[in-house]
Give the backbone structure.
Amino acid sequence: MSPTALLVLPLSIPSPSQGVWHLGPVPLRAYALCIIVGVVAAIWLGDRRWVARGGTQGQVGDVALWAVPAGVVGARVYHVATDHDLYFGAGRDPWDALQIWNGGLGIWGAIAGGFLGAWFYCRRQGILVRPFADALAPGLLLAQAIGRVGNYFNQELYGRPTTLPWGLEIDPVNWPSGASFETGTTFHPTFFYELLWNLAGVLLIVALDRRLRLGRGRVFALYVMVYTAGRGWIETLRIDTIELDDVLGLRWGVWMSIVLFTAAAAYFVVVGRRHRGTEGRETTPYRDGAAERSHAPS
């Protein structure tokens, strides 16, 4: 690259000037749109993988009708629970806890809530949860990657100051409460790091699943390991604060990553050893012929 070309390269990444557009009285929020696009992408990829595993086309969308609302509720409850002073502290308005379009969805709560919603539907329909989770796992990571674009429009979840050429410009009004930085300070775009990590994780999980024919929940465990491995180090760069910000010298998100990675890795190893020689996928993703019963013409 010539010196002239280097001179025209941007030395920082500007943040969007707005994250909401209005079509008459209807607001279009970038954060919400990113979540919706992520859900659609997850359903598309999950449906393809579910059918390849012997499932019925369209069932992933049916499960999503339960899992997505449960995931959103879980994500918001987790966020409010771990940072409740933002909504219930002195001078705060508790009704703000319902305004999810302004950001504030905890991924750990989203996974837990979404899993419970999916489990409830699968149990009713006779669908085995583990093969379904294995089919959906890469799609979840894809949805998380797309959702991170919404953080860019909200100017949130960025990292500490940096002089790297891809440093992110953040409006002072969106700096952490009580923080002060020099004019022109740029920050690590940690949500963008996570986006790239998640996309790489999707490719890795799909490739390993095709090669090793993982099953019995091991693809989902691999998803948890991949995500938490990246989230753990990305958390060390972030400067946004929550009430559980420092637990024994580490951010709460780092501890969550360590605990969940360890649990997923243990599951992956134990199940692999228990089914050594027969590690392949389940022969049917349904329980006791439930697919035939639930999809028979009425």
